C-alpha cells in the first residue's frame, strides 16, 4: 500500500485509512464507550484521571534511519518509542497516540504500520487517529498523550539535583553502536 496523495480520487486515502485502522485494531485496543478513534475528523477521548502529558516527535527517513539499513517497520517502531520514551522520562503512562505520515508513493505503509502497531500494543498506547499525505521523503510524526498520578506529579528536568540517582532503561550508546555495526558490515557481527 502506498501513501495516498491527499485530495486524490478513487478513495485512495480513505481505503488506506480503513486498512490501517484494521491493522491497528488487530491488537485488541478498542475505544471506551463515548470515545471515537480513527475515522472521523478528530478523536474524542476521555480525559486522564491524573495530570496530562503531551509530546511529539518526528522520524525522518535518511536522518533517523538509513534506507537499506532499517525496515519500514523499524522506522514505525522508532517513531512510537521516541514519544513513549519522553513520557516515561517524566514518570508518565501512555494514553493515546496520533500518527501523521508523509511519504513518496512507493512507501510501504503496511510495513511502517506493522512497527507502529507492534509498539502501540507492546506499550498499551492505542493509535486513535492521524493523517496521510504524499511527500518527497518519508516523515512520521507521532503526537502522544500520557498521564501521571496526581500524587506523584511529573518528573521534570528542572527538579534534578546533585547526588540524585539517574536511571536508564538500556545501555547508553547502544543505538549508535547498532547503527555503526549495520553500516560497517550489513549487520553481520564477527565472532
Question: Helix and strand layout, with pairings?
Answer:
Blueprint: H1 12-25, E1 51-60, H2 72-89, E2 93-103, H3 109-122, E3 127-134, E4 139-148, H4 174-185
Parallel strand pairs: 2-3
Antiparallel strand pairs: 1-4, 2-4
Helix pairs in contact: 1-3, 2-3
Walk me through this protein's architecture.
The protein is α+β, with helices and mostly antiparallel strands and 191 residues long. Helices cover 30% and strands 20% of the residues. It has helices at 12-25, 72-89, 109-122, 174-185; strands at residues 51-60, 93-103, 127-134, 139-148.
Largest sheet: 4 strands, mixed
Give the strand tally: 4
Report, as a whole number of angstroms, the end-to-end distance. 39 Å
Q: What is the gyration radius calculated from CA atoms?
A: 18 Å
Give the class from helix and strand content and strand pairing. Answer: alpha+beta
